[in-house]
Amino acid sequence: QVQLVESGGGLVQVGGSLRLSCAASGNIFSINSMAWYRRAPGNQRELVATMTTTGSTNYADSVKGRFTISRDNAKKVYLQMNSLKPDDTAVYYCRVYSPRGNYWGQGTQVTVSS
Question: Among 5, 34, 97, 106, which residue's beta carbon has the most beta carbons within 10 A?
Answer without folding.
Answer: 34
